[in-house]
Amino acid sequence: MAVIGIESSAHTLGIGIIEDGKILANVKRMYPISDKGMIPMRVADFHVRGVRKLLREAFSTAGMGIEDIEAIGYTMGPGIGPCLSVGNITAKTLASKYHIKIYPVNHAVAHIEIAKHLNKFSDPLALYVSGGNSQILGITDEPFKHYRVYGETFDIGVGNMLDNFARAAGLKPAWGSSVAKLAIGGHYIPMPYTVKGMDFAFTGLQTKAVGMLKGSSPSDVAFSLQETAFSMLCEATERALALLGKKSLLVCGGVAQSQRLKEMLQHVAGSHGAKFGFAPDQYNADNGAMIALVAEKMLGSGKHSYGIEDCGVRQDYRADSVEITW
Amino acid sequence: MAMKLMAKGSEAEVYRTSAFGIDAILKDRKPKAYRIKELDESIRSARTRSEAKITYIADSAGVRVPNVLFAKRYQLFITYIDGSQMSTMMQQGKRISKGMLVQVGKYLGMLHNAGISHGDFTPANILIDSKGEPWIIDFGLSSISDSIEEKALDLLLMKRSIDSASYAYFIEGYSSKARACKIVLMRLSGIEKRGRYNERS
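^ Those are the sequences you sent over. The predicted structure of the assembly is below.
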């Protein structure tokens, strides 16, 4: 029997189907982002209009139907409320209509778990970098088994910062890929660098970089911004790796699509004798497969079951509040 | 000059050596391959300079710290202290006396009075010598500022690292010295109420 997962925390509506850890389908539909950002209700409307078609697409890709589904997972949070509600309502509707088990899944945990699963790591240190989040996490058993947050951003996520800069520079905001392109051939200009132990902050850097667009070469600014931001992430990650002595390091989340960041983290892992891993891009971007994967693990552990009434959305659902039951 | 690697942290490598015939450690900030040369050199040299300067200010303020013998661009030669880290003693179940904790608290108060926030004030950065005297080490992440927040974070790190009875002695020492004690403690309880610290435990 298979497990289906629905992801709708932000601009991507994703549906994945998994059976025994094997990904059978991972389809998605992304709200076209304009230079003005996202209006939550419009994105939610977009997801509502697309969800039936995407469900059919997922089933036909996997070559199965709803009768083959044993459990359904959906993203409970963190994310944008109206968007989360679309996945939540879809999951609850399917669960009650077809009498399928339902599991609320934490989005951040799902990003880590899919990268961990695809790399076959058992106990990695994870750098989770996306638009809204930037955290360094690792599993600990005290006081219950969960992902402890060892370091995180004091203000905004690194992806958000790169997007804000991209908009100011007249580029398309896309997890830093447009900034990376602009950075090619750029030269280094000193910028604010803020790391406190294993935590870091990005707004000072963003303000400075946006201000420098007037009067400096945009390519130099983009290059320096990217190098500074990623160096901050690497320093904090290296400190956590040295402190905890974990044997593997992975990077996940939307910004993990960046080649430069992966190249830098490879050095960090190598200098501490740790293995380095990441998932293919389709799983770093938001996706339904990771939600299905975690739902399958929750089902497999059998520790908790959830009624329809337990299943809501939580915009501020933190990874470190989730009990890891598998 | 014979050198023996004592510790390899994420920030620097520490060697046992001697300088001018004095037992010393060498703290060497090695290049990081992940970052570009310009950024790498600027971070390493700025932190080396800052650590030397703040260690000197701490010494002038009467805090027991090892002396910086001399500084190079990325390297510091510091007097060697024969002692154990308080964190190691705690792991080994050795008793940390009230007197030591009160003294550590006093030293942090004196650092704060001198405008120094330590930045990594944990039992791993407190050495206890053979006479039971505490030494404050590693000013690599320290800063000079008026920030109440940074000072409160020094207390928070310590509070998370030792048991509540020990913390009470530590605070007894701290409040006997720190001029801004009241406002720093208020900020500390503010920090602890913030959402992000609740689930981070």
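The interface with chain A takes residues 8-11, 32-36, 38-39, 42-43, 119-120, 141, 153, 195-196, 199-201 of chain B (CB under 8 Å). The first strand of chain B starts at residue 4 and ends at 8.

Shout if you want it in another format.
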